[in-house]
Queue: 4 jobs
Job 1
Amino acid sequence: MLVAVAAAAFAVRLGSFAGWAAWGPLERELKLEPQRGLERLQSSVWMTWPWTVGRARELNGAWLRGAKAPEIATGLTRLGNLQRRWFPGNPIGWLNLSRASLAAGREDAALAAIAGAIRRDPTSPYLHRFKALVLLRMGLYDKALAELAQAEGLAPGYSLPKVDVLPGDDQWVRFEGLRRAAELYPRQRTRKLLALAEALRRSGKKEEAVATLAPVARDPRVVIAKARWAIEDGAPARAIALCRSLIVRMLPSNIRSQAYDVLARALAVEGDDAGAMRAANKAVRSAPNLPGPYLSLASIALRRGDTEAALRYMHRAWGRAPADVRVLVQVAAIAQRAGDDGDARLTLTRAVELAPEQPRVAARLVVFLLDHGDYMAAALELSKALDRSPDDPALLRLAGRLQAETSRAQTRHQR
């Protein structure tokens, strides 16, 4: 019995090695000469082996650029059918059949095939975005946007395959994706709705942001968010009331710390530096590893003229959240106010690296570079940001500012 099991295991490993050996040369040929690679894909007897078909899941559609559409359709049809035969529960065979149908100009068949792929993996953002591509080819723009929103809900920020939409519709996709995320992930409902509300506020839709949070209005995280918004809207007294209504409740230590932190900021805006300091220190004691209280202490120290203490608190906040974009942006602001331009530039650069899809973060770095006369670096960062967000109003305004300032600099140099 043991001998039979060992022999079967050896046969499986041998087959796996044979599949790898057969797929390797074909993969190289598909990358270097896709036309010839597709011809081999259509005719190779090795492609009937399940082990070779399994390896073929690594095929990337980008390898086939430059090949003729009929060969792409024929090659991917054969591969897709083999993948469906040997791996019926995997969506890859259906995806390749959809790709093949698109190459052949048969959009209805492509849509049916990608629907089969999604039935086998409804949580794949790639499959939903590919379906959006198919729908766009069919002229069904609204349905394509709905699929993009579904992909956004499953994996916010995921962008493959690339799908071009009309200006402004990308914002609808983002908002609708966040709404769907709250339904797709019920255990994360509050967090997803907060993300949607924050996005709505950034776009100027303040009333809609508040309405979005109505189903979870009593959640402490929502109350803290509303208190923070009240400070931003120039109503610190309301923020103080909201935070004080929270700190009398039994709360987890990190939530209590956040409530005291926002209370400290609101008291500081009201001019009560002593009360702000007491609240910030209570926030630190509640959760010493959170960055927010140290940022509040740094701001209070700056108002008191204690630059050394401000920088010390700033570095503590930075050390506790070195990859948090919001914290990095706040650290940069405090560093600038304290005269530490080196750390300000470093943290803004890091924030852009962590969140390249957020134009407002890139805009902060560009403004910093322009303010310091580094026009070459500003132009480079602005160019990269505009490639990602070509219609962003803030970036377009900065492009005008950059052009005007470089023109003035050239005029002064010529004199």
Job 2
Amino acid sequence: MGYAKDAGIKLGEAVVTDVTFENYAACGVSYENYFNQAEGFKDEMLKKIQMPGAEVSFIKDAWPDEAYEYKKLDVPTYTLCIPTESLSEDKTDMHTSMGLRVKKTSADVYYRALVLSV
């Protein structure tokens, strides 16, 4: 981000990767913090992913992450999250040393979404 700006490189789009505890039971992938996107962003993402188990959630303003930095630069961006369940006591600590649980179907959907993001 800093290098591109300093070098005068205009980014076409930025895709941030992350984990989320949102919708662990309900979906295979979550598009979060999508900013400066064209009309129809959600429909476009849904068309790309079409596969069994590809339930998708969209959260426009989720927990802050690197996407907010790209937003400041007016770069179209979104965070592609894989839903996880924390093994911590409260099930929401994404930084626990206890680890995270990921559903196999989520891993498949996330992989497809990630490959189709480029």
Job 3
Amino acid sequence: MIKGALTLAAVLFLCLPARLAAQHIIVTLSSDSIRCKIIGEDERFTYYRTARTKPGEREVISNRQIARILDTDEIVMRQRNGIFALNWRNFRFGGYGGLSLLLVQDLVQGTDGSLDEYYRDRNFGFWYAFDATYMIDESFGIGAYASFSQYGNSVRIIDQNSGMTGRLRDDIRIGYFAAQFTADFLNDASGSGLSVQGGVGIIQYTNNFELFAPFDISGFGFGLHLGASYRLAISPGVMVPVFIGIRGFSVSNMQLSPPEDAPDDVINGVSALIRSGWPTDITRVEAGLGLIISF
């Protein structure tokens, strides 16, 4: 009798972890899911048991690694009613910014290379961007991306043929609106890891250009972007990415809006540049930091 009771108690004790395993789900910052029974917690740690926890022992996880704790019964109820619970990783919203290098080479050049420094300075600018991503699973997502880049410089110039003095000025703004994919790699327990982003979209180009007279130049085209980042998790659902990428590549259908009082030879010269396809190459390399909120 006593032996039978002890045997039954042992069986119930051994089965206890399996019964407890179906009561909670811990979702970590690295997108892992732990099916368990939470048996205690304090300011730093959460203690739990799973189906694989040995009798008399418990598992522990730092609270800083936990993104969310779900109740399994609630998830089952939602699934049966066609209402699927969303965890923290399903949606990401990010903002980014940093320095940009425009790789374009322009046709307006001094015969002695006197404008080389002008273009080197002009081609360094800044950029900022926003994106929204739906993560299909733990490592792949799709979404929308928008970036804005700006470059500019100004210098006084002299026409060596006519002796006319004036100003060469660029104020270039590039908008890029794209569909984007995101792929995550090498996530650690804190949620930090590597990401690769890429996509295709529409480019919008404007330049408040001046060559002895002010002109408005605009164009559009289709472009691509590809980049990589290291995501540093600083708290549950919050990451700081360090980013580098390339965007390109060209615009077409350039439109020129000259001022009414501009000299004819200046208008004809700028128009000739536009007809020749300038400036079509807007490939740029960009690097910077960002902030990602996920839930």
Job 4
Amino acid sequence: MVADRARETVEAVKPAVSTATKAAGKAVNAGAYATGRQIKRASGMFSAFKEEYDKARKDDN
């Protein structure tokens, strides 16, 4: 009796869980993509800073 009720509840919730799982997966992928894009931008900014720093350092000598 209790097992039957539990099985019914699980079956009733499965579609919502599946939808939520897919949405969470999409959100994680979007976040990972945005993080990677920001890291790429930051490394580009660091490279530009390092080049300017090296130029200034060579000019001082």
